[in-house]
Write a structure and sequence with these properties.
527 residues, Ribosomal Protein S8, Chain: A, domain 1, three-stranded antiparallel sheet, elongated
Length: 527
């Protein structure tokens, strides 16, 4: 069928091509003839009219060429048709082979599925039989369990709930005994471990505090090159010494010790400024009011700079940074502050190391403990206000917005208030270890006993006082009054008067807390 279509198309193409070619040839010949011989047109027309003439185009070269081309086209079309036919037959054979292969695979799969289906049916039957057997066994076990339970209840004369309760009670008793035994073991282990750890911490504390202290109190001494210099220090009508004492806020004692001038002041910074300024005046030799004022001002600026450097160095040594400059300046005053020979810088360093070591052991907040130890005694160098060093320190830290946890550590390190946190307790313990360890402070036993007796005698000097006890190493005085003489309204006034007397007449480290106790007892006898 495709061959017939191809042949017909080829013939039509050849005919159409031949006709067109013949037409073109005729037109060409007629045109050329007309152009070459224009004078003979009428003559030719007349001859054609007289005698018709037929032109044979079959032998024309163009026609022959067209026919030859048509034959070639026909042959090419036959070749193409044959090729297409061959490819189509090949495709059909390939499709048939694929269909046969697919059909074969389908048959194999169908056979496998049928086999698998039979196996599943067989397994289902087996499982069903096994389930039925298990159900029968379960029924037998349940029946046996029920019979055994009934027999046990008859033998034990107990119901199931009663037996369960009895068993649980027995287990509970055993568990309680085991728990108590385990708790005791843990307590013993903790006690043993804690004692060993406490010893290690104390040993470390002693190692950290193994430093020498220089005993200083409220006076400093300046050596004189000769006795004549005393007259120049006093000046005409005492104007030099008066100017010096007014500018420095100290008192000069030129009579107590030959060859020396004793500088006396409760403020260690003022005393240090006065000492350095007096040494410079003596070295300079020009002792007069103007020169005194110049040297005192210069010395004060230098000491302020030294204190700031000391405060900054103290902060770096304990690993605390970004404190306000005024706080650092106050910490620098520790350089000139002593408590029974124990310098506050050395005491603060020692306490901070102890506190940090304890905080690490207890998994407490190390930064809070570190700041608490660093700032716990800062109130001792606040000289322009009145109050205990604890209250002065708390007020100062609140002014600079220090963390409340740190303020609590400062407020509670002498247990004036109950410890509110582990960190606060650690700071108090570290302070106690640093201040109370052997060798930390230089007060001898006789002086210590005398100071406590003086505190008690100061309270005994008031009317209505029955008993007085100085406790906490002289930091607290407890006064018991006679309720018949001192009423409730008078106790507050009495406590204030005792505290004022101690403050004016005695010397003591830190603060002394006075507690007045009035107790009324009424008894009757039944007859």
């Amino acid at each position: 069928m495709p061959d017939i279509f191809v042949i017909i198309i080829a013939i039509l193409l050849s005919l159409a091509t031949g006709g067109i070619v013949i037409y073109l040839i005729v037109q060409k010949r007629i045109g050329s003839s007309v152009q070459s011989q224009p004078s003979q047109v009428n003559q030719l027309n007349q001859q054609a009219a007289d005698q018709p003439k037929i032109y044979d185009v079959s032998q024309d070269p163009a026609v022959l060429e067209a026919k030859s081309r048509a034959k070639e086209i026909i042959l090419e079309a036959k070749d193409s048709a044959l090729k297409i036919k061959t490819e189509a037959e090949s495709s059909i054979r390939s499709l048939r082979e694929q269909d046969a292969s697919l059909e074969k695979d389908m048959l194999i799969r169908k056979s496998q599925l049928e086999t698998r289906e039979k196996e599943i049916e067989s397994k289902l039957r087996t499982l069903k039989q096994a389930k039925e057997a298990i159900d029968r066994k379960q029924e037998e076990v349940d029946s046996m369990y029920k019979n055994q339970k009934e027999q046990l209840e008859k033998v034990a004369s107990l119901t199931r709930d009663e037996a369960r309760k009895l068993l649980l009670d027995k287990f509970e008793k055993e568990i309680i005994e085991e728990k108590g035994k385990r708790i005791r073991e843990i307590e013993e282990e903790i006690k043993k471990t804690s004692e060993e750890k406490a010893k290690e911490i104390l040993i470390e504390a002693m190692r950290y505090g193994a430093t020498d202290y220089v005993v200083e109190y409220t006076t400093s001494k300046v050596k004189l090159p000769d006795e004549d210099i005393k007259g120049r220090i006093i000046g005409k009508e005492g104007r030099n010494i008066t100017t010096f004492e007014e500018l420095t806020g100290v008192e000069l004692d030129l009579d107590s010790s030959p060859g020396e001038v004793i500088v006396s002041s409760f403020d260690p910074v003022r005393r240090e400024i006065a000492k350095i300024a007096l040494e410079r005046l003596i070295a300079d030799g020009r002792i007069q009011p103007a020169k005194i004022e110049e040297i005192v001002d210069k010395t004060r600026n230098e000491v302020d700079h030294i204190m700031y450097k000391e405060g900054d160095n103290l902060c770096h040594r304990v690993g605390v940074y970004n404190l306000p400059k005024d706080i650092i300046q106050m910490l620098g005053r520790f350089k000139y502050r002593f408590s029974y020979g124990q310098n506050l810088i050395e005491h603060t360093l020692e306490e901070t190391r102890i506190g940090v070591a304890i905080a690490h052991e207890l998994k407490a907040d190390v930064e809070t403990v570190k700041l608490g130890c660093l700032l716990h005694d800062i109130g001792k160098v606040v000289s322009d206000e009145e109050g205990t060093h604890i209250q002065l320190g708390v007020d100062l830290l609140k002014k600079y917005n220090i963390s409340q946890k740190v303020i609590d550590c400062v407020a509670e390190h002498h247990e004036d208030k109950p410890f509110s946190s582990v960190e606060s307790a650690v700071v108090g313990l570290a302070d106690h270890v640093s201040g109370a360890r052997p060798g930390a402070r230089s007060e001898d036993y006789e002086s210590y006993v005398k100071r406590l007796k003086d505190l008690e005698e100061a309270a005994y000097s008031f009317d209505g006082v029955e008993k007085v006890y100085a406790i906490s190493a002289g930091r607290e005085v407890r006064v018991f009054v006679k309720p018949q003489i001192v009423d409730d309204a008078s106790t507050a006034l009495l406590a204030r008067e005792i505290a004022k007397k101690i403050e004016l007449e005695q010397t003591y480290p830190g603060v002394v807390k006075v507690v007045v106790i009035r107790e009324t007892r009424v008894s009757e006898t039944a007859k």
